[in-house]
C-alpha cells in the first residue's frame, strides 16, 4: 500500500525497510546492515501520523502515557484498557512504522497465560509487537508469546514499572549488575525477543550487550553504540520545561503551541477572528 504524501513536507530518508512498512524481519536486517533504528513514543492518531510521515521506524505506544498524557507521576496506574485505546489510535494513523505497544504493570507478571491474554488484546487493537519489562523471570512469557505469533520487545536496565523496587530513577547495570544484565539480555534473545530496549544503562555495558546479541538494542540513556534510539516524543520536541539528561530537544513545539493559543485568544477578544472568510452566507 502506497504511503500518502505528508502534508508536513518530505520526510528524512527512511533506510529501514526500504520505504516499505517496517516489519519484524527488518529489525534484524537493520542491525546486520548497520542502519540505526529510530523509535519515538506516540499515544494518539494526530501525533502518530506526523511521526510516521517523518520516517520514524518504530512507534512505541508506551505506558509512559501515564506520565505524559494522563497526569500520573509514574507508569504504574496505567490500565490495559487505556493502552488498547491508545494503540488503536496510533495504529489507525500509521502506514509505515512498526507499532510496538507496552504491556502495562499488572498485566503480565503472573506468567505466560496472563501475558498472552493481555498481548492478544493489544495485537487486536493494531499493534505489530508488544513490549514488556524484565529479564530472566520474563523469558517464559516471551517464549509463549513468540510461539503464539506475537513479536516481543524486551526492556532492561531502568525499568519504570519497577521504580519502587529500584529506589527511584537510577542508572542500572553498574558493577555486577552489568554482568547480570548481559545474562538477562541473552535469556530474552534466546526466548525469541525481536529487540531489547536498554534504558539508563552505562554506555560500555550497553555496547557489550549490543555486540553480544544478534537482535538489535534500542537505547535511551544508554549511549550511541546501541542499534537504535528511542525518546519520549514530548521530550524530543520540547513540549515541557524539563527533560531527562539523556534527552535532547530537537524543537520547541510547546512554545509554538503556547504562542498559537495566545494569538488565537487575542484574535477572538479583539474580534479579528472569525473574519468574513471564516463564515457562511445565507
How would you describe the overall organization of this protein?
The protein has eleven helices and eight strands. An eight-stranded parallel β-barrel has the order 1-2-3-4-5-6-7-8, surrounded by seven helices. Helix 2 crosses helix 4 (80-92), helix 6 runs parallel beside helix 8 and helix 8 (176-191) packs parallel to helix 9 (203-212). It is globular. By secondary structure, it is of the alpha/beta class. Helix 5 links the parallel strand 3 (98-102) and strand 4. The model has no long low-confidence stretch (mean pLDDT 93).
Question: What is this entry, summarized?
Answer:
By secondary structure, the protein is α/β, with parallel strands linked by helices.
Task: Give me some keywords for this one.
282 residues, alpha/beta, 8-stranded parallel beta barrel, 11 helices
